[in-house]
Amino acid sequence: MNRATASWLRGFDLALALALIVLLAPLWLVRAVLARVRAGRLFDRAEQVGRERRSFVRLAFAGPLPGRDLAALLNVLRGDMAIAGPRPLTVAEAAAVPAEAEIRFSVRPGLFSPYPLQQRTGIAHDPESELDRRFVERLGVGASLGLVVRSLIAGLVGGGKALPVPPRLDFFGVPIVNTTMDEAVDWIAARAALAPNPSPMEQGEKALLAFVNPDCLNIAYTHERYRTVLQQAARVLPDGIGVKIGCRMRGLGLAANVNGTDLFPRLCERAARDGFSLFLLGARPGIAELVAANMRARCPGLMIVGAQHGYFGPDEEDTIVARINASGAGVLLVAFGVPRQELWLADHHDALTPPVRMGVGGLFDFYSGRIPRAPLWLREIGLEWVWRLAQEPGRMWRRYILGNPLFLYRVWRQARQEARR
Predict the structure, then answer these.
(1) Beta bridge partners of 49
(2) What CA–CA distance (Å, rounded) separates 70 from 74?
(3) For residue 269, what is the enclosing H or E element?
(4) 65 and 38 in contact (C-beta within 8 Å)?
(5) Is 86 within 8 Å of 113 (Cβ atoms)?
(6) Are strands 43-49 and 55-61 parallel, antiparallel or unpaired?
(7) What's the pTM?
């Protein structure tokens, strides 16, 4: 970072910190009085590591009440912290930072940071060091202000209060595994690595994996067979900010937004590393082949052993199933849309040999380049659905304009029923 940029950033930090102190003076006074009365002291102090690995004492108003971090504005005035920057670390955390992540110590730590922002909406799937590196490399007043605004919006959408994170969730009778992206990829890879054999009699356990967002759960609410398939699946994973909001309404925490679109490139990287293969089935003619070409270029060594569009008739199904089985794929990805893809996989469960099979909705459209995905800043504030609505309003308006409120209403009713028990 050059000297001019550093000066502008420091001026931005001072101006915003002073403005907040003035604007929030009544709240400051109340919080200070409560700290003194309830805890017998104004501040709690914690040693943390900042710019150039220098230690500093971070201030927080004493006691567990809201508003503790208002005191850290004093750290901004003193130059210990910035308004936006990498998360300040404890001494133990700083000691464990690898050499390749040392760039985070080239700037002041921030009150608002990239990793906590993505955690709020459940998309913090990349290592914190990687998010910090990207932020530091483009650091400026605009990037800092953008991070602050996105963090405030994400706090409203994703919530800031820590809630219990159970290993399992249940929405309308659909069991959902409450897990992380890394664990989900590990689970798939462990099963996909069991190389299939053309003889179904010699197969191990076959695992159907499904992703559910609010639209899927709305369908499952009234579609008995689809709900039964989800109940019998090896795993159902949570997809979208709507599920996170639904969890909050029930006083529960969501470990992560484990959506198929974010999982797919990580699965491809793992497949290239571990040597298992994929088969792509679905979408318009030519789309699956484009996905295969794009992902092979992105992940050298990736084996995509088949690609087949989804526009075929019942009389072709046996041939396509035979082709899938003959490919030796460890993972079959089916993009027919919900609930058709899950029902098709259930109908052909015994005939198919890939150890892992999953329905992936519109994923192929994104990775073929046919439909651009929402920019990261929209995903960080939980508004990817707005992007999808704007892209295809004629197809998506019922799902989002009618479906989202309906889902939240049904969750509210479920929460009320649980509270009565």
Answers:
(1) 55, 89
(2) 8
(3) helix 260-274
(4) yes
(5) yes
(6) antiparallel
(7) 0.91
Residue type, 272: A
Does residue 271 contact residue 330 with C-beta atoms inside 8 Å?
A: yes
Q: How far apart are CA 403 and CA 409, in angstroms?
A: 10
**Judging by beta carbons within 10 Å of its beta carbon (0-12, 13-18, 19+), is residue 26 exposed, middle or buried?**
exposed
Chunked mean pLDDT (size 10), the chain, 421 residues: 83 94 93 93 96 96 92 96 96 91 94 95 93 93 94 85 91 97 97 63 73 98 97 96 95 95 97 97 97 97 97 95 97 97 97 97 95 94 94 93 96 92 76
In which element (H, E) is residue 271 found? helix 260-274
User: What secondary structure letter does DSSP report for 195?
Assistant: -
Q: Peptide bond preceding 339: is omega within 30 degrees of 0, i.e. cis?
A: yes
Rounded (to 5) percent helix, strand, coil in the chain: 55, 15, 30
Query: 260: Cβ–Cβ under 8 A, 6 or more apart, which residues?
Result: 211, 237, 239, 358, 360, 361, 363
The enclosing H or E element of 174 equals: strand 174-177
Q: What is the pLDDT of residue 200?
A: 41
Q: Which amino acid is at 196?
A: P
Residues 6+ away with beta carbon under 8 Å from 244: 121, 122, 158, 159, 238, 254, 257, 382
Alpha carbon distance 9, 83 (integer Å): 9
* For the chain, percent of residues with pLDDT exceeding 90: 89
Residues 6+ apart with CB under 8 A from 356: 188, 191, 192, 206, 207, 209, 330, 331, 332
For 364-380, letters b (16+ CB in 10 Å) and e give bbbbbeeeebbeeeebb
Residue 203's pLDDT is 45
Q: What single letter denotes the amino acid at residue 306?
A: G
CA pair distance 310, 340, nearest whole angstrom: 11
Q: Give the three-state DSSP class for 211.
A: strand
Query: Tell me, what's the pLDDT at 199?
Result: 43
